[in-house]
Amino acid sequence: MKLTLRIWRQRDADSAGAMTTYEVDGISEDMSFLEMLDHLNEELILAGDEPVAFDHDCREGICGACGMVINGQAHGPERTTTCQLHMRHFRDGDVIDVEPWRAAAFPVVKDLVVDRSAFDRIIGAGGYVSVPTGAAPEAHATPVPKEAADLAFEHAECIGCGACVAACPNGSAMLFTSAKVVHLNVLPQGAPERESRVLGMVSAMDEQGFGGCTNTGECAVACPKGIPLSAIGTMNREYLRASVKRR
Amino acid sequence: MALATRTERSPSLIGFVWHSTVGKKAVMAVTGLVMLAYLVAHMLGNLKIFFGAGEFNAYAHWLRTLGGPVLHHEWFLWIVRAVLAASVVLHGVAAYQLSRRDLAARPARYERRRARTSYATRTMRWGGVVLGLFLVWHLLDLTTLTVNPNAQQGHPYENLVASFGRWYVNVVYIVAMLALGLHIRHGFWSAAQTLGANSPRRDRAFKATADGLAALLTLGFVAVPIGVMTGIVS
Amino acid sequence: MTEYTRYRTGDPVADTKAPDGPIAERWDRRRFEAKLVNPANRRKHTVIVVGTGLAGGSAGATLAEQGYRVVQFCYQDSPRRAHSIAAQGGINAAKNYRNDGDSIQRLFYDTVKGGDFRARESNVHRLAQVSVEIIDQCVAQGVPFAREYGGLLDTRSFGGVQVSRTFYARGQTGQQLLLGAYQALSRQIAAGTVEMHPRTEMLDLIVVDGRARGIVARDLVTGAVGTYFADAVVLASGGYGNVFHLSTNAKNSNATAVWRAHRRGAYFANPCFTQIHPTCIPRSGDHQSKLTLMSESLRNDGRIWVPKAKGDTRAPADIPEDERDYYLERIYPSFGNLVPRDIASRAAKNVCDEGRGVGPGGQGVYLDFADAIRRMGRAAVEAKYGNLFEMYERITAEDPYEVPMRIYPAIHYTMGGLWVDYDLQTTIPGLFAIGEANFSDHGANRLGASALMQGLADGYFVLPSTINDYLARHPHDEVPAGHPAVAEAVAEVTGRLERLLAVDGDRTPDSFHRELGELLWDECGMARSDAGLRKALGRIPELRAEFWRRVKVPGSGEELNQSLEKANRIVDYLELAELMCLDALHRTESCGGHFREESQTPDGEAARRDEEFAYAAAWEFTGTGTAPVLHKEDLRFEYVHPTQRSYA
């Protein structure tokens, strides 16, 4: 396949960026999108140009490192991560726009690399169970109904890639935050910190400069792990409940 | 194992809620629902126009005596007006503040954007502005009668027929009611989501209710100018 | 014979920390005998932890909970992305919830046997003991393990064992366990007890007066090279499987931290013990950048087969039952498709070498779920393996519900690593290695679902107990400003980066990595021979020289420069690969993941030679390209008597 790529190039956080056009040839449909960019980068290096910087690591859709907006869609046209998007979903001669996640809370570091450390700070504000090592009771001391365990798992699948923020017209982190709130709040182990967790995480989310939720649902459509939009509703309920109960 | 204990938060529940995006959104949801409830009553009352001037004007008069003798003349109406005014202001201020925040949170656009959301969702902000402007005109026209061509206190039926006698008023009114329908269509479901009443099981029911309410209110309100235009009401 | 292969055998190395006495009491005794640090004094001690995977994340969180000041590093943009996250299948623990005859003793036995008797008994027994506490800890953290309808934890069985002791969270157990550790770590970061440095890569170890006192690290965003000091350094930087270029490791997983520590004096043990995972998706072409694992748990219900006839190109559905060879079930009737990884991998290689492989290039075997779907129903198969099937289909565009999966072995894990004693301390005092970075617990082959167990055992329970002893016994002092060892380490790091940028040759870093990887896969992969290893040992120094002559690294060192990061890691691979081949050459027996063609039984099974090789080979660095010194740690088996492994 032969493709025209229009890729966002930006030297560093302080520089202005621009879309730059590249032609690539010899793309196999079995390549992943990142392998296609590898191919471009190998050519750029040999031509004496700077390769395109992008975050990636596991390349099997679980670490959450990769992510770019492809033709206006976070992670591209399929519901998956960029590393698991294969070129068979494109056609010979396509023009493909590749941009970084765009959100005030995710400043561009270089090219397609953005700073998502705001997510870590949200988790640090309550996305855990306070159980120091060694303090745990026997695992079977508290049975957890299968439905609760499955619901928790479904929300714990979040990989923290940031596609939800990138897709949201408001740059909101509600889906990310609510996934963790639901995961821990539905489990008996998370119950003691149920209120402080949601209150802490929501205020951290606001402090990091994410926008609010206008219930557009873009986040859940973009999420490669299928975190449901209902998570946001549940977090809202938890938040209001905790606000009332908090004293 | 030295973890700081959580610091005390601001004492007032309302202040606390108002300062978070989720809380502010909840305020919008509650005020939106208040206004929605009012609109349902308002729309039903409007339909009395089809029973003639006598009944419609008597209904308008009754509204002023509602709650008596406990409430003084028009007190009920003023309470309703106060609640509505507060709702409009809170809804609008919260929307303005949240919108500013949202726009700041997403300063750059994408080169190519595929809208995957419904028209109703995308028009919430401008639809809200349109409704706000319409509300001002609507009050000047039929409540204060400032711009009403008939402007007779105590004769709402005649004032209304006079107002809808002008074609451009009908156009403005109908457009505004379509905007209202769209606003409710996304707004009602959104309020359920914001207040945490929604769940995967209830989602379809809420969406259907939202569609039903939007259609009902739009048709109910639009029936009046159409009635005037077609001469059913004169 | 190159100069490099003329290695010398030095003094033996021995673990001096594990107490004698009954094996079941050793861990308790060690904890009792270890000196403690007064809680009030702990905050004066700084511990550097490199890596935030299961081992590093859990260690950082636990040390901080204990009151130490922790300074932690990861090259990823967030500690949550360490490659432990990609582990799929599960985590072993001797809970015996199934009442199926499991016990600490059995997990200990299975692990020693599964490792083909090349692991240290004391360590493995401790691992089995601690395993039960790990599950308790993770459940309390909110790790959503799979549960049964009664609300209790579900388990499944895994390769190499006959009990059901593997706890799992669908096919994402590593992710869920890592997020548990990450959340515990995040809590400490927020509390200010852990100073986290993401996007920062350790490039050298600072050794002052014989003790590990800090690291040199590069900020990957600004390119700034900085020094960080501590009272002890813990390496939790993972394995070195990426030396093969194509592996199931994350693209940026690398050996730099451990290799630099090795260059500074830490012995490197058993580098040739690498694990080839039998169930990976075969490569689809030269563009392939990494390989994707399909969880071993698939072997619980999938049946592995190839056509009986060579060069049979019919579609799998067209091959009748009696023309199929379910070779694992045929050769190993009692374990069948659940034989350990090394055996399953080699069997796949053998049938492919016979010309009976399937798919492009004949490099694949079928993993067929047709029987399972018939037996359990499609819905049950979907519930158990749905996400794996989806992943397979996404990558290959084939539907595994309809067409059997094609799998082929790939490099997955490295049992070798920095030599450590019972306290997990390397031969450099104050330098500890945990998780995959050390060599300790898996011998010559790791059993499935044991990597997660070992990483968390080391990080949550073992290191936080043993490091106290070191910290309590050594003076708490500052590294003198301007100490020559510090300046020398910084100069070496910056000098190397400058040299890489200065070559300005005509080959990309990746092209060297690919070439090295292919060489290693061919000569030091699933089967190794004297001739092949010598060939590789001849080629590696040439490739290294060519690298320094022809590599092209664009950009500068003062910015985010991913080519520079990659090239810098390849420098270390080019040295490590040589040691791996030498280790493989010197170990003329077959054991676990190390199969020497010269040492096999008449029916082609690995032949171990305990009289000569019942030791761990710990290598001492003497210089790039110069022969290392071999230090042997003799392995004594008091509780599990070495036998030829039999899974037939």
What would a concise description of this structure say?
The complex is a heterotrimer of chains A (247), B (234) and C (648). Chain A is of the alpha+beta class and 247 residues long.
What layout of secondary structure does this protein have?
The complex is a heterotrimer of chains A (247), B (234) and C (648).
Chain A (H helix, E strand, L loop, with lengths): L2 E7 L8 E7 L8 H14 L22 E2 L2 E2 L20 E5 L8 E3 L2 E2 L2 H8 L21 H11 L6 H5 L6 H12 L8 H14 L10 H5 L7 H16 L2
Parallel strand pairs in A: 1-5
Antiparallel strand pairs in A: 1-2, 3-4, 3-5, 6-7
Chain B lengths: L12 H6 L2 H26 L6 H13 L9 H31 L13 H4 L1 H19 L13 H8 L3 H28 L8 H27 L5
Chain C lengths: L7 E2 L13 H11 L5 H4 L3 E5 L3 H12 L3 E5 L17 E2 L11 H11 L6 H20 L14 E2 L9 E2 L5 H19 L2 E4 L2 E9 L2 E9 L5 E5 L2 E4 L20 H8 L4 E2 L4 E7 L22 E5 L16 E2 L1 H5 L9 H13 L11 E4 L1 H7 L1 H19 L8 E10 L2 E2 L12 E3 L17 H23 L10 H20 L5 H15 L6 H21 L11 H25 L23 H4 L1 E6 L8 E6 L14
Parallel strand pairs in C: 1-21, 2-3, 2-11, 3-7, 11-19
Antiparallel strand pairs in C: 4-6, 5-6, 8-9, 9-10, 12-18, 12-20, 13-17, 14-15, 14-16, 16-17, 20-21
Keywords (chain B): Membrane, Transmembrane, Transmembrane helix
GO cellular component, one term (chain B): membrane
Protein name (chain B): Succinate dehydrogenase
